[in-house]
Predict the 3D structure of the following.
Amino acid sequence: MQANRSRDTAPELAVRKRLHAAGLRYRVATRPVASFRRKADIIFTKSKIAVFVDGCFWHGCPEHGRREWQHNVEYWPDKISKNRARDVDTTNQLTASGWQVLRFWEHEDPDAVAATIVEAVARAKTP
């Protein structure tokens, strides 16, 4: 599991490339709240928007996540379940702190994801 990237994955880079081309500047793999021990994939500090691009395997995608395991049958369902619970907790804590949380699956179209993010940032800037 050490070889799995926690940042700069291909789906993240594809989205970031489009956001940068749209003129947006952001922080990467940063804690939205300093006291919060979890990092968002992309954050917009002034707009208080945290973006997560979740991997289908690790976060239990309903379309592409695994349902059956051949090895470590007891471990993997529990691991994925805990990841999903942590995702919900992260979203709830950030929302309670005044952040808007946007979550996307790695298989989603990067153009559509970037367009959604650009729209959210524009809305956040408008009073």
